[in-house]
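Here is this case:
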Amino acid sequence: EQVVVLAASVLSSILARNERLGKTSRLLGRMCFVGQIVNQQQRQLLAWHKGVLPKLTTEAAPEEVTGLLLLYPSHFLHVVEAELTQLTEFARALVPLTEKEDLTMEVRVLACTDDIPSRMFTGWQSSIVGQHSASAAPSEGVIHVPLPTRIADTYISLLKLGRALAHAKGPEREGMLADLRTRHAETLPTQNLLSEVAQAEDALKVAEFVHIFTKPIDIKLNREVWPVETELVY
């Protein structure tokens, strides 16, 4: 009973904070995916996303889906903001798509954040980036960056792009999306970086993520634990 009361109190505190911030009473989350594109089918993969994402908004889950999809020649990078149930449904939709390997394969979850304080994107947008590589730099004094740090940097780069796009209006935003390689060359993740993080064992494959975090918990106990055994006092 005390656990139930505590859980209700925590939930009430979260909802009250959201109300003060002008947020919906529904808990929102953010996920970031990376994967390989089969045979450079960027436009086909874009069409798949445009077909799936609107279906996530229903009467039961009315929140808008926001985010940014970046399509490179051989990889894609996608950050999605939505209600938690919508994020789960989207992750599930990616599993059969990945297994067929018609459009994409090796999709991994780079980040998953529950109860985000606010959205970083004003809507859902996409951009066909093309080939993007880092500018040439001297090899001397190069510092090795651990892969988990590079994964985090990739995720943060997307959020920075979201902030920049949110400050742009109308035609300016469309111009930015059409020319990210020039306007945001330093922030935009490179093709080489995506090749590395897309194969990172530190990031779960989307099928593994769905299996671990969305399946019902079934714990088998070796013995009954209720009622609690009490020591006899003589």
